[in-house]
Amino acid sequence: MRPTQVMSHFQISESTLWNWVKKGKFPKPEKFSNGVSRFDVAAIRAWLTSQKATSN
User: Which of 7, 34, 37, 53 lies 20 to 30 Å from 43 when distance is taken between CA atoms?
Assistant: First the structure.
C-alpha cells in the first residue's frame, strides 16, 4: 500500500503518518532501492486489530 493510500484511508497528513512510524505507533514500510516505500496490508490489519484490543 502506498503512503498516499494509507493517508487517505486513515484521513491523516503525511507528517502524521511518518511521525507515527518514527514513534513506533504504526507499522514500518518496506523501503526499496529506488526510494519507494510500501506498507504491508497484513501488518496494517494486525495493527488495527491490536488497536481495537487495547481500546476495549
Answer: 34
How much is the pTM? 0.86
Sign of the alpha-carbon dihedral angle for 44, 45, 50, 55: positive
Q: Are 41 and 5 in contact (CB under 8 A)?
A: no
Unique residue bearing C-alpha cell 484521513: 11
Q: What are phi and psi of 35, to 5 degrees?
A: 85, 5
Instruction: Name the H helices within 2-56.
Output: 3-10, 14-22, 41-55
List the domain boundaries for the chain.
3-55
